[in-house]
Every structure is written in structure tokens, then in C-alpha cells.
Amino acid sequence: MGSRFLLHALSGLLLIAASSPSPGGGLVISEVMASNLQTIRDPDFHEPGDWVEILNPGDGALLLSGYALSDDPGRLDRWIFPAGLTLAPGERMIVWLDGRGVDRLAPHADFGLGAEGEALLLTRLSDFAVLDSLAFGPQRVDTSLARLTEGVGEFVTTWRPTPGIPNTALVPGPAPSLSPGSGVHPEPVTVEIVAPPGAEVHFTWDGRVPTETDPLAVEPLVVCESTPLRCRAFYPAQGPSEVVSASCLISPETELPVLDLIVSPGDLGGEPWGILRHPERRGRGWERLAEAVLFPSNGSPALQTVVGLRVHGGVSRHLDKKSFRLHLREDFGSVPWPVSGLEHSAATRLVLRAGASDSFQSLSPLEATYLRDQLVRDLHASMGHRAARGFFVALHINGEPQGLYNLCEYPAGAVLGGDGGESEWDVIRGTLDFQTGFHIVECTEGDLEAWDDLMAWVGQRDLSTPDSLDALGERIDLGSFVDHCLLQIFIQNHEWPLTSWVAVRDRGDPGARWTWHIWDAEWGIGLMPLGHTADTLAWALSPEAHSPLHSGAAPPVTSLLQGIIQAPGGGDLLLSRAEEILDAELRPEVTTAALDALADQIRPEIPLEESMRLHGAYDPGWERSVEGMREFLIRRPDIMREFLADHLGAERATPLPATAEEERP
To answer: Is the domain of 207 the same as that of 148?
Structure first.
């Protein structure tokens, strides 16, 4: 993003800083939107994006190639209008500020705007005169900043944007109120809708945003079955109010927390933009507004916020039961959820995991448990490392049950770095590129510069020298990496080392070391490969197993693990730490107790889940599958001790370097 202008807030109202258009300058900025989700889509890529409306208020046509737009006062010619474009007197043009930098049916600048606050400048190139500009603070989704008088005056917030036509600003009227609001009820409930003076309130039962053609609320409504109730007030001389939503659940058949997503059905399954119709599509253009309502299992009041809803995952995108991602955004007015298990979370993204490889969609009841991923993340946290926290919920969409889901934090830097979101992070992970079929290293935050430096150093360094461990420990948190590898080896995860790992580094600290975390461990604990006897250390170190799937090169985790084993003392380091955790956090009494606690939580949901996914009667095969996990956790430690000793030699105690977590005050 470009440099920020000075922003002020007074009594919660943003003051927009804007220059007056230069006399005789020609073009002006008429309207700007920095958080477009549902207002308009561009004609070329059919996606929402930031945009600016440029107006020619003069008497003559203007050739636009002599003008530029920028978000950086130090680089006024950042994006120059394409050659050949003209603007007739009184004509308006939409320029998409989406970073694409192409000119097709519409011009697309090579930069975007930030909904958290940004600057925009319009410059005449002949003398580099800034003809018009504005600076703004945080924006709400699908609102714009517009001048109401043609080409002059202050910018005001408009709740009904007018791209391509003269601007208007209808201030939204007061919203109605619902009593009671979102709640779980043992029997049908009567909801009273209180309309503000002068308003007509329209409502819907199916998740749609109400329009003036929907039924009028003229008396209390009786809710007889689980449903979303959405209301909106309409006025003769004001804009419509914000939408008020309530999830009314009538005796849901679950003992878990319930998460109900209220979302327009067309945004889910409608054409052409329904995200469930196009589950392979990714990015902000395939995010839809929803209200997420969480009902804790202890009877506490519902927690409700606006979220951006996307389809999430890899293989699961092509299964009937999809995983989802929830984005909590300031421009939506999202609020954090102080939910048990996620207290004080810095997460602005949450994942609703459908289970995919550990579910009845992919496996029989003799294999699937839905427990593996959450259990492994819990075990990693018990070893003193930061893991994405989560818990199980019964998901509903517009009141309709969708089955068992694991709601957890997305593995972002603010979550895994553990500083509450104060730093910026490099976040790197191993993943599968579905287009090429190769496993790759993907950067999800920051950039690859520091990561590439690390891997270049590992590739050039002779790690058999006496100081190798110390030198490597200056670059990666050895304790974090060793524990990560040992846990992956223990759970027999053969998706690893190609995937299932995340590496995180604080970009603002020149001396920061990479820490290592687990994400997506559904193949572990005896699932693939079946049983508990696989030598996962040999698997991790095998170039024949991984190189053909990784563009001919060894995965980064394999290279680092080989380097530690080659280094003097590296094998002892792995052996001594393995013995510590196998006698403590991974001791059968500890791991089976953790498994039993999770299994007890979801056991009542399994008959419904199996019926929904397999369309048959409940079979106690799930219990046998959980018992198979118990057997794995009991037998695996001795097997792991045997093959570690075979590979790494006699055990000698070697102090483990402190982890980054231990070093923090």
C-alpha cells in the first residue's frame, strides 16, 4: 500500500481529507469504494474489487493517457490511463483498482485500496499537478465515498453506491429490533418486531436480505421450526436500515455448541455466483457475507457477528460436505468471539473443518473418527508449542443441520506467533498444487525472501562440521523443529513431510528464528498407512518417496531433518528429546485420555453424521475405529523407540536448546 495520509477520528466519525479539484484541471474523482463485496462486479473477471469513478465535469472531451492514478504521494505516475481512452463532457468512467494492470472491457489499475485506510491521487502528467485526492480511514463493506455535487465538495459516506450514475446519499434509517433475538428454544417462540417511527419492516425466513417485495411485519411472528429471521426497515425519505438477523433454533438435536450461518441461499447455491456451485474458486471474489451465530453448549447467550464466508480446503472442495472459512473483517464490523477454547484469540480467520480424509465421506466407519486433526493439534500444544486451537460444533446453515464440524483457528502468523497480532509474519507451508499435481512451498503471509535464504544456506552448508547445530540453531528454533518432526513421526503421518507443516517467522526481528507447527494431520494415528508399525523416520528421509512429487527435489523438512542427523550430536538430540516426550506428553496414559475426552464430546453426534453422509442406519463401527486409535497410541511408543534407535544409534543425553516459547518473558 502507499503512504498513509493523516487520518482523524472525532466522536467515532471519520473526517475525510480531500483536496479541492484544481481549477481547469479537467478530471475529478467522483466516487470511491475500498471494500466492495456485493455492490458490483467488473465486466472482465466478474469479481468484486475496489473501484474509483472518474468524472469529466468540463465542456470538452479529455484524452485520458495524460493522467495517472496512485495510492502513493511519492509515486504519482504509478498507473497511467491506457492510450486511446477518452472521456466526453459529463461522462463517468469506472477504473477497477484490483491490482490486475490490464485494459479490456474496463481499465484495471495495477494497485488496490486498503479497507483499513488509504490514499488516492489523480495527477496530470504534463506538469505532475495533483488535480484531486482524498484520504480515508476504515471503510465498511459495500459503502462508498462520493461527492454529491458534480465534481466539487466534500466526500460523504453513501450507503447506496452509484457507480456510473450521478451520486446520491441516502442516510440509512434506524434498524428494527427483534425480541427475543438469536436463541435456542424448547418449543415454538413468538418474536416481536419493533419498527421505528415511519418505517415499514419487511422480513424473510430463508436467509435472504429482505426487500420491499417481501412480507410486511405487522404483528408478532410465531417461529415453529429452526429458521433464520431477517428484518429490514424501509423509509420514504431515508435509505433502508441495516439488516437485523436472528437465528431461532427450536430444540436442536445436539449436545455440542451450535454454529448457525445465516446467508442468502443464492450466495451459496445460486448461479452464477453461488460459492457451492463453484467450490474450486478462491479469493476475495468468492467470499460472501454471512452472519455467524454461535450457541455455546453451556447455555450462555449466543455470540453473533458478520463474517465473510468462503469454501475452504483442497480435496474436500470436491466432496459433498464442504469445509468453510470464516473471515472476521473490520470493514464488516466483525467482532472477536470470546469463545471457550478460543479466548484471547488473535485469529481473524476461522476454519470449519469437515473432516475430509477422516470422515464418513472418504472412509468407512471402521476407519473414520473425525478426531485425528484436533487431537494432534492438542498434543502439539501440550508439548509447549503454539497450535491452532479449536473445538467441535454442530453446524447449521439457515437453521438446517449440516453435521459435525471442527471449528478452529486458521494457521496465521498472529495465531502461531502468539503475540496477539502485533507483528508481521512470514508464514510458509507445504501444500499440493492441484493444477500441476506437484507439492510446493506456499507463502501465505509475508514473502519468501528469508525462507529462500534459509534453504540456500542449508543447501550450501557442510552440516557435518562440529558447529553445525549451533549455526542451524541461529536460523531455526531447533527445539520447535525437533518436536514437530518427532510428533509427525509418532503419529505416522505420511502426508508429511510434503505437507502438514507450517513455518513461521517474525518479519520485524532480524534475529528471529523459524518455528514449526502442524496443520492438517488427518492421515495420522494409524489411518494411512493402516496400523502402527510404519517407520516414519525412514519415510521422511526417503528421496525416492518424495522427490518425484516435489518437482524432483527433496522437501524442505527432509533437507533440514537430514542436516540435523548429519550434524555432530544431532542424532543424540533427536533420541533424547524423543525419550522425554514418549515418557511424558506422548505416554499412552496421557494420549488415550486426550482421545477419550474428544471422543466423548462427539459420540452423540455420530449416529446423525453417519445417517446424513451414508444415508443408512447407525453402525457401531465408529466405536471400533476409535478403539483402533487407542491401540495405536498404546503401541506406537515402543515401535518408535525401536526404529529411532536403529537409525540414530545409542542413546546419549544431550540438552535440548530452548524453544522460542521458553525464551519469551
So the answer is: no
